[in-house]
## 1
Amino acid sequence: MRRINGTAVLITAIVATTGALAFPVWSYSDRAGTGQANVAAGTVNTEWGPLTAADRDLIVRVRLAGLWELPAGQQAIERAPTQAIKEAGDHLIVGHTDLDKRVRIIAAQLNVALPNVPNEQQQGWLREMSAATGADYEYKFANLLRAAHGKIFPAIGAVRNTTRNTLVRQLASDANQTVLDHITMLEKTGRVDFDAIANEIANASTASPTGPAAPAPGVPVPSAPAAEASGDIGATSRPSPAAPGTVNTGRPDPVDSNGILG
């Protein structure tokens, strides 16, 4: 059984370790015009479109994610306390091996320097998982990874929405697909603490809850009518690329025309 070297750093609550997981997204000041000036100040032009600070941040963080999730996945396969954890580890390895190829090619094309080791926080998570045993290991594996993926998931969407760089846009699309797959597999372990996730988000929020009123006990609501196009329009696409509870991550290998991968 392979263990990742390092001193154990015990976590007292998953909330305490996930607060710093937030994926930085380029922020905008309230003053009119300031946000656009901030973006322009960190932007360089490339043949694939403008490359912003947020774009570069995504590239680096996709690389960092692989640097710690690959060894976490390998350890899960080797320790394999349950079949579900072993399968989640398999998806981590396959997904990040693929994303790492893509991010290395894109970084070389856009001249973005990449890290080669996990950051200190990520190394700490690896040490925690390596030192844990039994149910404690299963909990830490599922929740440290699920929390990290849950933080990066909406942030990838934000970059995908705003980027004007075609390479970054494709990377965001690929990363989004992989992260959703990993979230799905981690949740299938049955060890994810959804209460801790919800509480962490609620504690970080400063806005009042919004949305429809809470349902009244014992008072049924009427069924909603179907929302659909009128008439026969001959649509042929499918609503989902895979069976419920699965994510289709199949995609062609990246094109490495400059031989970046060797």
Note: The two ends are 31 Å apart (CA to CA).
## 2
Amino acid sequence: MAAVKPKRISFIGSSLGGFYATHLAEQFPSARAVLLNPAVRAARELAPYVGQLTAYDSDEPFDWRAEYVEQLRLQQVEKITHPERYLLVAATGDELLDWHEMVDFYPNANHEVIEGSDHGITEYPLYLDRVVHFACYLD
């Protein structure tokens, strides 16, 4: 990644992908990030699930290992820099993650708080224009 020197780049991630998008955005000072119900403390959230699991969207089994949790700890961003580079889309009805924690973790960022909804943000198509405009630097 050190060889990549983009003038404009955006990372978009949902849930654990939001955690990774935050980590990556902090590696590139001019990058933007769009975060959809992000896991802000992924290691803490996922540590209890070490072992054999079933994929969220299928019946496919997989192993979630302690070393994966440690990798997440090492990638944890403690505080974001330049909050104007972030767009947080958080649903108050997220059944997996606490939207209050999301809002608190991204202070002074661009916030789009959706009343109700769910972890997958069922109403995502209603927010797609906002996401694209922000990610493509059209705002």
Note: Strands lie at 10-14, 32-36, 51-54, 61-64, 86-91, 110-114.
## 3
Amino acid sequence: MDERTQLLQNKLILITGASGFTGSHACRYFASIGMRVAAVVRDEQGHAGLGGVTYHRCDLLSYEQVRETVSRIRPDYVLHLGGKNSVPESWKDPMLYMESNVLSVLYLLDALRDIPACRTLVVGSRLSGPSLSSSYRPHHPYGLSKTLQKLVALSWKQLFDQHVILAEPSNLMGPGRSTGFCSLLGGRIVQEEREGGTPPFRVSSRQERRDFLDVRDAVRAYAFLLAYGSSGEIYQVCSGQPRTLEEVTTTMLNLSGSRMTVEWGDNPTADSTAEVIQPEYLERIGWVPLYPLRTSLEDIIRYYRDEAKGGD
């Protein structure tokens, strides 16, 4: 165990969204460093038993259920991962995204007012806006919902003097099913291997640059922030090394040996000069990514191949 997270050992952490992509990795990691993990899920069934992890059914859109769950568990730390995170889906059901990403954090933080010593990390998105000033123009309902989530979290900290920290991760990747670019690509590659004749995989632009970070590195960063982050601060969780979508796609195709057809778009709004953001605070306190891009992509391919074999 990393000595910099030893102060978390034997403490109780409540993790929302525990059955999701990041949440499942978070449960494993925090249990592995000696924390007692209370995993909040919508359905207690179908979860693999992990030592140190207990599962608690709770609808985050029910104020009564959230208050009862928080009151019963009384955590020392909270990692809030619950919510929705698909830009395309947010156009189809914008109200669901407002409820899932805004009301859930409001209910959670209000319930935590009864536990003033609790430290809460709210995981937002780099797709959120910087503020709700008159110049703010949301690009999609998902971005608006995460901007409002940020406003609620910072406001509750200010109004009620709660220990609330915010993290804004870049594009997370790694083993497990998610709506991220690398996961979608990996899943399609394995589908093509097994079935053949799948439609071309469309990529918006060859030169669009994004920062990719392994989800396992992100979860470690969340532990560092829970331990040492300052209340009311927003921290960037990223690799600091943007990659073009062409580089990521070509690397994954080469690693898998796939001949799948890729259809390259020419999106005029694609950002080929994305600002390079460094995880400066995390680096100062000793956090560095442990998973190179190649390893993360290999693990994604392995995950989907293993999943496909399990369905045979």
Note: Residues 181-208+243-274+296-310 form a domain with the UDP-galactose 4-epimerase; domain 1 fold (CATH 3.90.25.10).
